[in-house]
Sequence to fold (513 residues):
Amino acid sequence: MRSIALMLALSSCVTPSSSDTPHDDPYHSTALKWHQGSIEDAFKQAKKERKLVFLYWGAKWCPPCNELKAQVFSQPRFAELMTSSVPVYLDGDSEYAQIWGELLQVSGYPTILLLTDEKKELMRISESLTYDEFAATYLDAVSGDHTGFSERLEAGISGKATPQQWRLLAYGSWYGTRNLDLHSDLMLEKRMKLIANVPTRLKVEKAILSAELLKSAAEISRDSAIVRKLRTQAVKYLDSFLDSDETIFAARTTIIYSMKPILNWAFGKNQQTIKEQSRKRWLAAAEKIRGKPELSVDTRLWGWYPEIETYEMDLPKSKASLPELQVKVRDATIAADSSATSDFERQAVISGAAHLLGRVELYDEAAELLLREAKKSVYPYYYYSSLSQLEKKRGDTNKSLVYSKKASQSATGKSTKIQWLVQDINMLISTPAADKAQQISGLLEQVYNQIFAQKDGFSGRSYRSLKRLSKMLSSYPLDSTTSKKLKGYSLRCSRLEKRAQVRCSDHFSEILK
Fold:
C-alpha cells in the first residue's frame, strides 16, 4: 500500500463532491443505508464516530459484483454487521472514481476494502465468499489488532501470527496492492515458509494459502532453484486442499479455475501416473463443490468447468465423449437459469452459463440464452459482448461485428462506455469488415470525446483501456483523415492537469509515431 502521505497528497489534487458516490444501487441491501457523501466525508465521519470505512468498489454490470450482492449485501444480517463501519459504495462510473481507484490501488471489480480513518488498509477481499466466510473475516479485521498486510505476513513467517491474522492472510486478497511481486523467488520462498508455520488446527487457512501458492507458481515460466523445489513439493500442497470436504470448500476458486495450469506445471512427462491421480481428485473435488447448497448458483454452475477443462486436455481422443458432456452442461445451465431468480443472481449467472455452453459447442443454445437475457436486462451490452465473442468463435464474422457494435452503443457509464468502445475497435481491427477504416475513425471519435469530458479519463480502468487502444493502433495503419483527427485530439493534452497531461501525451505519441 502506498504511504498515507502520498495518498493524501494525491487526493488533494481533486476536489471530491457529493457526486463522488452514487445513490443507492437497487440491488443492494435495502436495510443498509450506504454513505451518500464524498469519499473524504466518509473518512471524516469515521474519525468522528470512531468507526472504520467499509469501501466496496464495483460496477452494476459486473457478474462477480452481482454475486457478491446476492451472497453478502442482500443478506438481512449484513446491515447489522456494518454498525462498526461507514459503508461506502464507490461505483467505477461515478465522478472521480478512477482517480480514487488509483489512490486506493483497486482496479478489478469487485474489491472490498476495510480502512481506518487514516486510510490504513486492514482488509482487502476480491474473491467470492459466502456470507459466513465474509462475516468472520470482516469481524476479525474489525476486532483484531488492526495490523496491516505486511505486518501479518511477517508475523506468519516468524510463526507469531494470531488466529485472526491467519484468517486475514488466507481470505484476504494478495493481488492488486502492496506492490507485491507474487511470482518472485523471494516471495515464493516467503510463502512456503508462511505455509509451513500455519498451525495444524487451521486446516482451512493452510488449504487456501497452499492453493494460492500453486496458482502463482503455475503462472511462472522460469526454472529457478526455488521453483524446482516448489514443484517437487506440489503433491504436498495439493494434499493440503484436496484432502477433505472442508478444505475443498475453502479452496474452491483455485479448484474450479486454476487446476489445469497447476497440473501441467507440476507434473512432467515422467509423472503421468501421479498427474492422472491428481486429476481424478480434482474432478471429485469439483463434484463436491457442485453439490454444496451453501454456495451461490453461479459457483455451483462453474463447478462443471473442470469437466470441460479435462475434456479439452484430452483432445482429440476425448472427442467421442462430447455428446455426454454436452448433456451434463446443458442440464446444469438449465438448472442455473431456473434457480437464478433475482436480478443480481441473473447478472452473475447467465453470461457464465452461455460461456460454458459455447465451450462444449452448444452455440445455438448459448446464443438463445444471451439474446433472451439482453432483451430484458438493463445492462444488455454485457450480453451483446458475449454474443460477439460467441459468433466470432463459430466463424460468423458479420454477426460478431453486429453484436460488438450493439454492445458499444448500448453501454452506459463513463468508464464502462470507454471500455466497450475499445472492445468494439479491437473487434473491427481483428475481423475483416467493410468500410473498416471509417467505422474505426467514428469509434475513436467517441472514445476521445468521452475521455476528455471526464475528470478521471486518464486514470484507473479508463487509462488501462487507453493503453490497450495504444497497443492496437500502434500496429494498425491509420488513414490520413484519422491521423489528422488524432493529432487534433493530442493538442488537448496541454489543457489537462500535470499527471493526466503526461499520460495523454504519451498515449498519442505511441499511436502517431
About this structure: Residues 1-24 have pLDDT under 50 and may be disordered. Strands lie at 52-58, 85-91, 111-115, 121-125.
